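User: two proteins, same treatment. go.

Assistant:
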Amino acid sequence: MTERRVVVVGYDAAELLDIASITTSLGIANLHGVTPAYHVRLATPGGHPITCGTGLTLLAQETLERVAGPLDTLIVSGGIGHLAAADNGGIVAHVRRLALESRRIASVCTGASILAASGLLDGRRATTHWRWAPSLASRYPKVAFDPEPIFIRDGDVCTAAGVTSALDLTLAFVEEDHGAGVARSVARELVTYLQRPGNQAQMSMFTSAPPPANELVKQVVDHISGHLDADLTAATLATQAGVSERHLTRLFLKHLGQSPGRFVRQARTEAAAHLLTSTTLPMAAVATRCGFGTVETLRQAFAARYGIPPSQYRATQSSTGVRLG
């Protein structure tokens, strides 16, 4: 193999960042001398320029209808034009055709809707942008959409979540093709995470949703966030809020979709993840600050949330810059 042929499928109102995250990452990998190198091309319907969702225009390098395999990787971009693209029989047919001639197939963000329309995701687990996951799950009932992970690999088909997760997916491809050392070098050039694990949640609980509308729930949540190392049992929280434990649980389920205990565990785990990557605190100190009590309790909660132990998370996600102690 003299080169790895990679085709990125674009269309009107595609997301520029989806496309650039892929092309730039693979271009930097080439600058590091990978062999075989990546030969990356943007293919569009008719080979016409596309106007991205932000209004910028991209020139195509290939005509989608004329692209022929074999390909190393076929990647479909997402964007606000994804539903129109998924309803375009020509785009869907050519994606399906090229998939048969590709070693691996992928989508970024809402590009999953086009893979789903082609039938390539039928019977598979897939992810997409968290905001679009419910509607795509309804539109394509044969696909098991999971809005949580950053990316999912199911056989030779990979789907990535929203926008910048394209970086994570592409870095995973670089590691698969050329080793972890090259992937880390590319990540450093991009000044990005040294690869977030694919099963890391797309959205933090602190940013994914607006504050709860119920004032009592909001007060309890604020207390939890500011006192992670305190006694945060449901009984204690209920007493402080002046309601019964049963009533507090009912309010949490209604406004947050989870029990107080589960919310506390999630808050502590995400706080631990932040400390692991932004400080040099010993593991025991991280556990204490976040209210876990012991390193083993932290390890169990972390493995349940992120699928990896906290030590591995720190080793792979910490930046190379100065960290606060």
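Protein 2:
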Amino acid sequence: MTMPTNAPAFADVTASDSTLRRFLHGLPGVDAVGLEARAASLGTRSIKTTAKAYAIDLAISMIDLTTLEGADTPGKVRALAAKAVNPDPTDRTTPHTAAVCVYPDMVATAKAALAGSDVKVASVATAFPAGRAALDVKLADVQDAVAAGADEIDMVIDRGAFLAGDYMKVFEEIRAVKEASGNARLKVIFETGELSTYDNIRRASWLGMIAGADFIKTSTGKVAVNATPANTLLMLEAVRDFREQTGVQVGVKPAGGIRTSKDAIKFLVLVNETAGEDWLDNHWFRFGASSLLNDLLMQRQKLATGRYSGPDYVTVD
């Protein structure tokens, strides 16, 4: 198997189960009180009008506009793609979103609908959202999505294996998915709400990055606890430290529960103050959200006109 780009510096660490465990459990413990206090403090930063307008446009450009429902139809996916390309038909200066995220069987539909645009097609894979399937089934899921034209793959880790301490299984699975993804960028979803502790989130972040993740992602959006400022701050610290150590930059994607412009701007402040300006770009930071876009559009129009739009201003997803 081809060694992913992130791993050579950690060849000794990943040589065996014991060396990988020793490394992950040797990471500094997380001061939960300090982490949550810093996240809360950064969330109180005041953003003035000019900066707010910039932040709203930046947040729009970072959204992975997502539909992951059993009732998804080709028509719904095409409508979502049209909204991604042109979020506000009344204002052509509105940025397009970063990507449209769908199940593998809808990738071809999304790809066709987005032809000629710069919007990427992302596909969840690896038996999303539970990740409970054999590796060959997960890899077939990935290969189907890539063959249909996916630009990005959002995989879920085996949380059961991780929580049981079988870190090598998780590492090897991420490596295998990375290889199956080919040129598609790989986002590795931890489902932070199921990892129980901040220490586990830090370990998962480093494990994902060592294994070759292009992005580390908080959540599927399918559980009770999804992205929070604190768990995202912790992951931003991890990508910052990983780049300092290896020179490799990895993106971060909080997903689930980010619904308002105010929330999105708080996360952008976290990015700027923790990882730095290099991550303030949709190549390195994404929001996994759909309802967020409507609020950003309404806030954008309020800044332009001084008033909120009526309820029929934005489309209902």
